[in-house]
Write a structure and sequence with these properties.
10% of the residues lie in helices and 17% in strands. It contains 1 helix and 2 strands. A hairpin with a 3-residue loop joins strand 1 and strand 2. It is elongated.
């Protein structure tokens, strides 16, 4: 396994972040993590599915259902 090319840092005015500690290639995957939690914002309620976050049009395109129940 390659050593990480990023490190976590904290600043008083901007909070937490990640920064490169080694040269990077365009398109290189730097970090991957499963989400701990998510929520649909008020502006997206009724627009995206609460479970998969896909929009109504995406559901139609992939042929899952005319409209998911949880939109």
């Amino acid at each position: 396994m390659e050593p990480l090319k990023v490190e976590k840092f904290t600043t008083a005015d901007r909070g937490n972040g990640l920064r490169a500690v080694a040269p990077l290639r365009p398109g290189e995957l730097l970090f991957r993590s499963d989400p701990l939690a998510y929520t649909v914002s008020k502006g997206s309620r009724g627009v995206v599915c609460d479970h998969c976050l896909l929009g109504k049009e995406a559901w139609r395109v992939i042929g899952l259902s005319p409209e998911p129940e949880n939109i």
